[in-house]
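We emphasize that the prediction below concerns an isolated chain of 53 residues; any contacts that depend on oligomerization or on bound cofactors are therefore not represented. The input was used exactly as deposited, without trimming of termini.
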Amino acid sequence: MSLVTDGQVETWLREDLGHHDVTNHVTGDTEGRLVAKETGVVAGLDAAVAVFE
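Result of the prediction step, given as a token string:
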């Protein structure tokens, strides 16, 4: 169950508009990976998934 709403995601994405962030201009499909050098705890996965759905 995600605690992230569509409205929150829209607000977060709207904040990035107009700031000339070059990462907003990536075309096509992209992918990435997270590499951790040590054991840790991941927070915010629900939010990250909601943004990219």
